[in-house]
Specification:
Order of helices and strands: HEEEEEEEEEHEEEEEEEEEEEEE
Strand content: 35-45%
EC number: 3.2.1.55
CATH architecture of the largest domain: 5 Propeller
Radius of gyration: 25 Å
CATH superfamily of the largest domain: Glycosyl hydrolase domain, family 43
GO molecular function: alpha-L-arabinofuranosidase activity
Structural class: mainly beta
Number of domains: 2
Organism: Glycomyces buryatensis
Number of helices: 2
CATH class of the largest domain: Mainly Beta
Main location: secreted
Strand order of the largest sheet: 18-1-22-21-19
Catalytic activity: Hydrolysis of terminal non-reducing alpha-L-arabinofuranoside residues in alpha-L-arabinosides
């Protein structure tokens, strides 16, 4: 039966509206998917094969007090951003030895004036403690501070804002593992570093004799059950694979970045490698003095050169947890440097902290 003109007109209008509504829903779904994608980490095919950086001036130095006089250096920083504040843990060094300090602030412009809390006032106690690494271990809901005290040590704390809350040192090993004793020569066992994937937690350390060690335990067993270390990497020239190893997960990828400090012809610098597995094998990225990850040669100093050393530090992370993820397009590195004219006893060197920002970031185009 033929429909009246008015009804046909209404049906046509309704059909048009339905098509428009469907198109709008489809467009909204596409937009939302794009928005969700854009809120994810920017995808990069690979890191660049060479790097360029810009450095701040000196951001932080030691703050001696009556109980901690004559501190020469603030060094070995570890950093996370949590609850609107930067939380920095670092070594303090003097002719009397080492311990650690905690600093927090909301903006890097406040770093120099922020008060220092000396961690020998916590359960960590007095004596040799150095080279901290901090992360939040999600399975336990606890903060971990990993450091060296002659062994591979750790303390825990439910609240990073409470520096008095750190527990007494506990150890991953009963003593120095045999493989390290066999290879350390006249070096030192230093710079313990933990990073985890979904299954395992890995502990790296160095011996200042050309060896990088790695051991592992499951996430479920951590911090217990560390395996006997294996040599993860080695160099005949010990100064080419010195210490201060960091391993990070590149957020949004299946790739890991390994950094190790070395000695160059001018100052200390970092070499780098990548892998699709924390355990390796690792492929060279920017791993030479001629093509470093970060050194005085590929760092500019807009406010004036204050150091020739790009030494022990940590990447600014994308989160706080045990996976140690970093954003490959927004790399920054908190490091230690010092006056190039300084000299004398190592423990009395005037280390200060500065911040690198990558200037040749490999971010994917938005076009």
């Amino acid at each position: 039966m033929k429909q009246p003109l008015r009804l046909r007109t209404r049906l046509a209008v309704l059909a048009t509206a339905l098509v428009a509504a469907f198109a709008a829903v489809f467009a909204a779904a596409t937009f939302n998917a794009a928005a969700e994608s854009s809120s994810d980490p920017v995808q990069v095919e690979q890191l660049p094969s060479s790097f360029e950086w810009s450095s701040s001036g000196e951001l932080m130095g030691p703050k001696p007090d009556a109980a901690h006089p004559n501190i020469a250096g603030l060094k070995d920083p570890s950093v996370v951003f949590h609850d609107g504040r930067w939380h920095v843990f670092a070594s303090i060094a003097s002719s009397a030895g080492y311990n650690m300090v905690y600093i927090n602030f909301t903006d890097w412009s406040e770093a120099a004036s922020a008060p220092h809390y000396f961690l020998d006032q916590s359960g960590i106690g007095t004596g040799y403690r150095a080279a901290p690494e901090v992360f939040f271990f999600e399975p336990e809901g606890l903060w971990y501070l990993v450091y060296q005290d002659g062994n591979a040590a750790y303390s825990t704390n439910p609240d990073i804002n409470d520096p008095a809350g750190w527990t007494a040192p506990q150890h991953f090993y009963p003593g120095m593992p045999q493989i390290i004793e066999d290879n350390i020569g006249d070096g030192y066992w230093v710079d313990m570093w933990v990073t985890c994937d979904d299954v395992d937690c890995h502990l790296f350390s160095s011996d200042d004799n050309g060896h990088l060690y790695r051991s592992e335990t499951t996430v479920g067993e951590f911090p217990n059950g560390m395996s006997e270390p294996v040599i993860a990497m080695e160099e005949a020239d010990k100064y080419a694979l010195w210490e201060a190893a960091n391993v990070y997960k590149l957020q949004g990828t299946d790739e890991y970045l390994l950094l190790v400090e070395a000695f160059g012809t001018v100052g200390r610098y970092f070499r780098s490698w990548t892998s699709t597995d924390i355990a390796g094998p690792y492929t060279p990225l920017a791993d030479s003095h001629e093509n470093p990850f970060a050194s005085a040669a590929n760092v500019s100093f807009p406010d004036g050169v204050w150091t020739e050393d790009i030494s022990h530090g940590e990447m600014i992370r994308a989160g706080i947890d045990q996976k140690l993820e970093i954003k490959p397009c927004e790399m920054q590195y908190l490091y230690q440097g010092m006056d190039p004219n300084a000299g004398g006893d190592y423990n009395s060197l005037p280390w200060r902290l500065g911040l690198l920002t990558q200037t040749n970031a490999p971010c994917a185009s938005d076009e």
